[in-house]
Amino acid sequence: MKSDHHLMAPTAASAPVIAVKAEETFFNVVLMRINWSALPLGCSNLWLEAISEETSMATSRILVIWYSRTGTTRQVGKSLTAALHCDGEEILEDISRGGILGYLRSLLGSLRQKPSRIAATSKDPLTYDLIVIGTPVWTWSVSSPVRAYLITNKAKLPEVAFFCTLGGAGGDRAFAQMQELVGRRPVGYLAITADKVASGAYNAEVAKFAEALQQGLARQGESVAASAA
Fold first, then answer.
1. pLDDT class for 62, splitting at 50, 70, 90?
2. Residue 156's CATH number
3. pLDDT score of 29
4. Helical H segments across the chain, by residue range
5. How far apart are CA 66 and CA 84, in angstroms?
6. Distance in angstroms (rounded) separating the CA atoms of residues 73 and 61
7. How far is CA 39 from the centre of its chain?
8. pLDDT interval class at 167 (50, 70, 90)
9. With bands split at pLDDT 50, 70 and 90, how would you rate the model's confidence at 81?
10. Residue 120 class from Cβ within 10 Å (0-12 exposed, 13-18 middle, 19+ buried)?
11. Does residue 123 contact residue 65 with C-beta atoms inside 8 Å?
12. Does residue 151 form part of some domain?
């Protein structure tokens, strides 16, 4: 399995993207009308930082959510959250998967393709335009906690994208299972080997994947705007 990301054309547009563009236009007008030279020393930077933060919040309609047993998928999930400037959340369980017993429990659960019992998540998928879902690959399959999340939230999910971390193979099968569970094709997917994560050689792939997802949402907004005109 190659670790390079593979992208597919976005399939559906969502109205909130138009609101994002309107808010971006508003902030551009504000920036043009401020007399920056009249502000006290240092205030201009504070204003720019505040406006940039508000703009980022206004455009943050993406949620990155993941499960991680060893921390590898968590590392990628946090990097992707930072690259997208969006919300992030980790799927949690009540049981421990540490040590050899936890490892064997994980293997058995994935072989049986059974969802595990996960804690309730705090982020509501209905409030987002895109959910990026990450899983470790267990025996060429999606992990049991991510399977549980997809089953629980299937009716709430907007557009989806997938990412996974893996030892070297099984990503394609895990993505196929995730697609079957949600009942739709992802707008994009990314697979990264654990070796790349450990060496830190995955950041360029994450950045490219994030850029492609953002461009996809932008194209959706343009399509909606053109249809409404």
1. very high
2. 3.40.50.360
3. 38
4. 16-33, 43-59, 72-84, 99-112, 144-153, 171-182, 194-199, 203-228
5. 15
6. 22
7. 38
8. very high
9. very high
10. exposed
11. yes
12. yes
Mean pLDDT to the nearest integer, 83-106: 84
Better-predicted residue by pLDDT, 40 or 31:
40
Dist. CA 139–CA 167, nearest whole Å:
10
Whether 44 is in a domain gets the answer no
The answer to the question of residue 155 being in a domain is: yes
pTM for this entry: 0.71
Residue 22: CB atoms within 10 Å: 11
Q: Is residue 209 a part of any domain in this protein?
A: yes
48-55, Cβ contacts within 8 angstroms, sequence gap of 24 or more: 51/27, 54/27, 55/23, 55/24, 55/27
78 has a pLDDT exceeding 90:
yes
How deeply is 124 buried, as exposed, middle or buried, from its count of CB atoms within 10 A (0-12, 13-18, 19+)? Answer: exposed
Rounded to whole angstroms, the Cα distance separating 229 from 227 reads: 6
Here the tokens at position 214 are: 């953002």
Q: Is the pLDDT of residue 45 over 60?
A: no
Q: What are phi and psi of 58, to 5 degrees?
A: -65, -35
Total tally of structural domains belonging to the chain: 1
Written as one letter, the residue type at 169 is A
* pLDDT of 40 strictly over 60: no
Q: DSSP code of 190?
A: E
**3-state class (DSSP) for residue 77:** helix
Per cent of the chain over pLDDT 70 is 69
- Domain holding 192, by residue range, is 6-12+61-228
Quick one: DSSP state of residue 118? B
